[in-house]
Structures are given as C-alpha cells and as structure tokens.
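User: Could you check the structure of this?
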Amino acid sequence: MKAEVTVESSVYDRQSNLLCPSCGEGYLHQGAIEVYDRAEDAEQVRCTVVEDGNIFSQIISNATSNNPSSRRHGMLIHFECEHCTDVDFKLNIAQHKGFTLMDWEYEHGSNSGSES
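Assistant: Sure, the predicted structure tokens are below.
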C-alpha cells in the first residue's frame, strides 16, 4: 500500500513530526536504513544498509533492488508505530529530475523487520 507523507508541523522548535500513514499518530520508531547510490540510469547500484549498529554494503543489480528511485539515488527508512504493531512501514525517498520525492509504503500483517 502507498500513502502520502503527512507531518505535524512545529512540534518542537520548528521541527515537524512524521505521522503514521495507517493510524495518523506520531509515535514512530526508526529501524533499518537502506541507502541506494546509483549513477543516472546505471544497471548497478551500491546498497548500504545500517541496522542495529551493523553496516552492510554491496553492489547489486538495480532491477532487483528495493531502490525507490527509477533513475538515481534513493533511500528507505524502516519504521514501527507504537499503535500499529502488525504493520511494516517504509519511508521511501527518491531523487527524480532534481526533485526529492517521498511516500510511505506499508503492509498490514507483515511486521517482521527489514527486508534487506
């Protein structure tokens, strides 16, 4: 399921709070981070995952990666919501033609950690 990114503005000194795309609450906890470093339209991408204090990095085929960008760099941040315990959330951040695009991707009944 895809959803728009929603924030609650000016929560703490000009900072915004991300809101859960499923329940609308702001009690989200960050998990694994996946960074995709890709030259424009390159077939290969460097995927670096940071999770639980460990760093994994490898060059993989972009076609089979989780890169949220269709042409360049991308990033996924995994989240858990205190209220939605059976949902796997990923904040997708993609570079596209000078824009930074963001959306949520999530599935109910699938919270089993990151898919890296």
